[in-house]
Amino acid sequence: MSVSEGSGGRTDDPAFPEREAAAAPSVPVLDERVTHCRACPRLVAWREQVGREGRRAYTGWDYWARPVPGFGPDDARLLVIGLAPAAHGGNRTGRMFTGDRSGDVLYAALHQVGLASRPDATRADDGLRLYGVRVTAPVHCAPPANKPTPGERDTCRPWLAGELRLLRPTVRAVVVLGAFGWQATLPALAAGGWSVPRPRPAFAHGAHITLAATDGGPHLDLFGCYHVSQRNTFTGRLTPAMLRDVLSRAATAAGITPP
């Protein structure tokens, strides 16, 4: 069912994400609905401005300039959660972590641990496939200066909560990249069916917490990892080996056997 066949509410209504995510019957439908969202005026204005102005290196490129849905199979056992699409990365290509330096680091690591079919991600039609892992974010639009506001984070959260709900039958582990994503993800996990301790666990690279399911089903292994930002990777705060280690441990916890 498309957005137009749903509740009929305006896509710029702040309640649009919660309404449409809660009613989505599948991950593909949720992904499609995400792309229509206009609930955060500042983000809408910025992503579209970037799309119009572009960058010299991408002259002639038709920017996506819309919310970027998650990427990967809808029965994933492992979910990797970032922050938000990059202005000239996902906002340009229409796919998470695709076409920017952060994505270069992430997909190279996923490939090295056997979770991706190739080590690079350049465009949405490049043939890249993910094995047992899905990549998403708590904010689906590119924000100015890569910094969403707390209000934008909260408005967008229902999309992540809905994604977790729909992945509930298969997902067994989550890797969160960075403190912002961690803070945004914990409430979404609680809404998605897992018991989050109070006080909430603090973010740390290498953190590993097991969350019990509120419905008595399988638990979820939650891992923290520094974000794959250029600030972290260029300074050595996050090395490829550190990233591979977290991804490998998470894949093992999720029970993924690479092809």
UniProtKB/TrEMBL annotation:
Feature: compositional bias, Basic and acidic residues: 10-21
Keywords: 4Fe-4S, DNA damage, DNA repair, Hydrolase, Iron, Iron-sulfur, Metal-binding
Uracil-DNA glycosylase-like domain boundaries: 69-247
The keyword Acyltransferase belongs to this UniProt entry's keyword annotation: no
Pfam families for the chain: UDG
Region ranges (Disordered): 1-25
UniProt entry tagged with the keyword Metal-binding: yes
Protein known as: Type-5 uracil-DNA glycosylase
Species annotation: Streptomyces gobitricini
